């Protein structure tokens, strides 16, 4: 059995199990004694650090005297939480530290993103992807790059789905000025940004150089929002070999305020599309 990778559903399920334990007045130790487990296992389940089986959820719900519609809803959630996402077919192409993000993104209703140096993955063309992937510090094999491209293209399906994810993207001007892959590749990429920016679920803004300093000059970030009230926003920060997830409410709020500042600093959507069209023209 592979390493447990948390998802939105497992996060929601384990949060509910923790809430029910606290409501019952039981401790990790008392639950462990009743279940025949160690207290550390109860902690790891509630912290979403280990996979929780449906049969164990049934036993826990009985222990907490959960019946009726609430029990049925939680068992249904447990069954869905145990299902593998589409990205598991690409094992090896997605690092474990990124699989959690893909799962979150797959369930998100909205993504607010600021990018300092690269076009966001959900809006990249295949040629742009390949140019980026081929310049990695440790270049993958052709087959490995093909699999990474396939994953990124599969992620993009949500942008044009019948019930699409809502994107609000703010790009630093440097993103559209850097000639990734050469003039032809970059022109195609900018033309793709123009097309995506005209979708009803995509808002695209550019923060030009002449706007001066702003709130997020130190790096890129994403804020993922979810349709269920019990699933709080998550901030995602990516590094070369790992990632950081910010979930504390006050810290998430600071990033939300930062994104609001960036939206105000950037030029409007129509102005940004005009700037993109001019940039594409200059690359002809």
TrEMBL record:
Segments forming domain HTH cro/C1-type: 17-71
SUPFAM superfamilies assigned: lambda repressor-like DNA-binding domains
Alphabetized InterPro entries for the sequence: Cro/C1-type_HTH, DUF5753, Lambda_DNA-bd_dom_sf
Signal peptide: none
Annotated CDD domains: HTH_XRE
GO molecular function: DNA binding
Coiled-coil regions listed: none
Pfam entry (one): HTH_31
Full protein name: Transcriptional regulator with XRE-family HTH domain
Organism whose genome encodes this protein: Streptomonospora salina
């Amino acid at each position: 059995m592979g390493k447990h990778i948390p998802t939105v559903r497992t996060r929601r399920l384990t949060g509910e199990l923790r809430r029910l334990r606290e409501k019952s007045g039981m401790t990790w130790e008392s639950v462990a004694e009743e279940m025949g487990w160690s207290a550390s296992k109860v902690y790891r389940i509630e912290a979403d650090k280990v996979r929780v089986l449906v049969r164990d959820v049934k036993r826990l719900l009985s222990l907490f005297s959960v019946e009726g519609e609430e029990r049925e809803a939680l068992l249904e959630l447990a069954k869905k939480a145990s299902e593998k996402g589409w990205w598991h077919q690409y094992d090896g192409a997605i690092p474990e530290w990124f699989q959690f993000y893909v799962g979150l993104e797959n369930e998100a209703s909205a993504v607010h993103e600021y990018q300092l140096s690269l076009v966001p993955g959900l809006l990249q063309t295949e040629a742009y992807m390949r140019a980026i992937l081929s310049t990695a510090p440790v270049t993958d094999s052709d087959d490995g790059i093909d699999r990474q491209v396939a994953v990124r293209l599969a992620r993009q399906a949500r942008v044009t789905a019948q019930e699409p994810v809502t994107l609000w993207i703010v790009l630093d001007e440097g993103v559209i000025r850097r000639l990734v892959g050469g003039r032809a590749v970059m022109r195609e990429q900018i033309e793709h940004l123009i097309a995506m920016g005209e979708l009803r679920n995509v808002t695209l803004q550019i923060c030009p150089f002449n706007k001066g300093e702003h709130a997020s000059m130190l790096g890129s970030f994403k804020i993922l929002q979810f349709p269920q009230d019990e699933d709080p926003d998550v901030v995602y920060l990516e590094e070369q070999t790992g990632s950081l997830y910010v979930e504390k409410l006050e810290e998430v709020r600071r990033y939300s305020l930062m994104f609001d500042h960036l939206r105000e600093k950037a030029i409007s959507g129509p102005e940004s599309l005009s700037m993109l069209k001019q940039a594409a023209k200059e690359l002809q």
